[in-house]
């Protein structure tokens, strides 16, 4: 018999109706979409951007300079993790997410307006770096905040599925970036791309960001955070409390994130550049292969989130780490000299392996920390790992190839990252069927 005091469309675990949950999913989706659409545009157009913002040198040096700006923008992310974590745990999840999307949208739009090296010399890469740092600061609060938001709104037994919306939305941003890059590359000449074509994707950030902020401002904060407010239990110093009482979960969460940090940016952002610049694959074909892989990845991510609710977080994360440790180098071997169908098949395989990790990781990380410091714990661990290993993935991959002369160097690096995450996940506790930590 149903509970007469609860509306039929209300979840008894969170007291949230289905309409509100749909808006929560939409708000989380569009925010991450905007954040990572920018990263996609930068990564997929790296070869063109390197010629716009840096002096004419050899191809490898220009690419390294472009990817170093990408990496340097990640250095501010740990600081951003502390700042956004403080806002999210002290003021509220909604406030942090509504502000971060505005900052990111404005900064992304500004990239489209930056002058070239040809016009202003060294000021061009300095301006690019400044804007990328602002973007990195903003992005440091988005992934963690959206994951915490969804986990705290999710119905009983569906935290993994709801949290998988976050990686799915980031991949959708990458997918649109891939499609636009492929379209622009196909329709425009090299001169047109260099002059103005590369700017077009960044101009889309402003309207998308305004839509995301509008949706977020129409939501209440999560039931878990509102309960803390009602009991006057909101911490005044979330970072201090988190570092004092949750050091082990913080270290394990950071270790578990290493595979995601390296694999996500190497496979979904750097791969088109790797295929075209290092293996000589046609640029349009490399974008097409990445587009197919991203589409499969998005579908797999939701399946993985659902599976993690049924079988547990650790089993799926361990499986992903083992697959990457054993399968990355053979997969990269198949890419060298491969035809289009083989390239697509290998990228789909790698994308499926990544989805096994990424669909599970957001709920796993959010469940490691109590509600009082959940935003801070997630944001700091996730952003530290991404600052050290994610933002540098494209740079390290290009540098290792330059040093060793082997196109397999990035594969060995990715396999090593998988072993680090495997150790961290093995040492962590299972959280899938446990209630969210409150203390």
UniProtKB/TrEMBL annotation:
<feature type="transmembrane region" description="Helical">
    <location>
        <begin position="409"/>
        <end position="428"/>
    </location>
</feature>
<feature type="transmembrane region" description="Helical">
    <location>
        <begin position="62"/>
        <end position="84"/>
    </location>
</feature>
<protein>
    <submittedName>
        <fullName>MFS transporter</fullName>
    </submittedName>
</protein>
<keyword id="KW-0812">Transmembrane</keyword>
<comment type="similarity">
    <text>Belongs to the major facilitator superfamily. Metabolite:H+ Symporter (MHS) family (TC 2.A.1.6) family.</text>
</comment>
<dbReference type="InterPro" id="IPR020846">
    <property type="entry name" value="MFS_dom"/>
</dbReference>
<feature type="transmembrane region" description="Helical">
    <location>
        <begin position="340"/>
        <end position="357"/>
    </location>
</feature>
<feature type="transmembrane region" description="Helical">
    <location>
        <begin position="196"/>
        <end position="215"/>
    </location>
</feature>
<dbReference type="InterPro" id="IPR005829">
    <property type="entry name" value="Sugar_transporter_CS"/>
</dbReference>
<feature type="transmembrane region" description="Helical">
    <location>
        <begin position="250"/>
        <end position="271"/>
    </location>
</feature>
<dbReference type="InterPro" id="IPR011701">
    <property type="entry name" value="MFS"/>
</dbReference>
<keyword id="KW-0813">Transport</keyword>
<dbReference type="InterPro" id="IPR051084">
    <property type="entry name" value="H+-coupled_symporters"/>
</dbReference>
<keyword id="KW-1003">Cell membrane</keyword>
<keyword id="KW-0769">Symport</keyword>
<dbReference type="Pfam" id="PF07690">
    <property type="entry name" value="MFS_1"/>
</dbReference>
<feature type="domain" description="Major facilitator superfamily (MFS) profile">
    <location>
        <begin position="24"/>
        <end position="433"/>
    </location>
</feature>
<dbReference type="InterPro" id="IPR036259">
    <property type="entry name" value="MFS_trans_sf"/>
</dbReference>
<feature type="transmembrane region" description="Helical">
    <location>
        <begin position="96"/>
        <end position="114"/>
    </location>
</feature>
<feature type="transmembrane region" description="Helical">
    <location>
        <begin position="316"/>
        <end position="334"/>
    </location>
</feature>
<feature type="transmembrane region" description="Helical">
    <location>
        <begin position="283"/>
        <end position="304"/>
    </location>
</feature>
<feature type="transmembrane region" description="Helical">
    <location>
        <begin position="160"/>
        <end position="184"/>
    </location>
</feature>
<feature type="transmembrane region" description="Helical">
    <location>
        <begin position="378"/>
        <end position="403"/>
    </location>
</feature>
<keyword id="KW-1133">Transmembrane helix</keyword>
<keyword id="KW-0472">Membrane</keyword>
